[in-house]
Amino acid sequence: MKNQRKLKYRSLLSVLDMVVAVAALRLCEAGKKVLMLEMGLNWGKSGIPYSSLLKPGKSAAWLKNKTIAPFMNIFPLTPFTGALDRLDFKNINVWVGRGVGGGSIVNGGMAVTPKKAYFKEVFPELDAEKFYNFYFPLANKELKANVIDEQFLNDCPIL
């Protein structure tokens, strides 16, 4: 082909989210060439506005006939390569971002810290105390995350 060029990379990262972006940064800082692939649009440059929960538009879902946002699966859609996708498995549904930025474009600005008992059950080999006393607070500080009061979640009429 006429305009074809060969690219040489030692690292290929896909399904970008904040964790993979940090890995890409560290590899680049170490002098490695990294190719990052995204599935979906660059929403910041697309000119297509993000959808709201109550008035979903083109960006609401990835090739779906209705909205798929948690708790709000009620609006019909014309299938389009939107920003939010959901992978349905037997025992779990996983929501993912489709576009430049991956999950960070659809996470609602949330940095969820799991309940300690659940964390210990799922990751018994990890030092939970270190995660809750050091890593989670550090991540929240760096992300400038806020905390939602549990009572707000209990009282929220939409949830």
From TrEMBL:
InterPro entries assigned: FAD/NAD-bd_sf
Record-linked Gene3D superfamilies: Cholesterol Oxidase, domain 2, FAD/NAD(P)-binding domain
Lineage top rank: taxon: Bacteria
Listed name of the protein: Uncharacterized protein
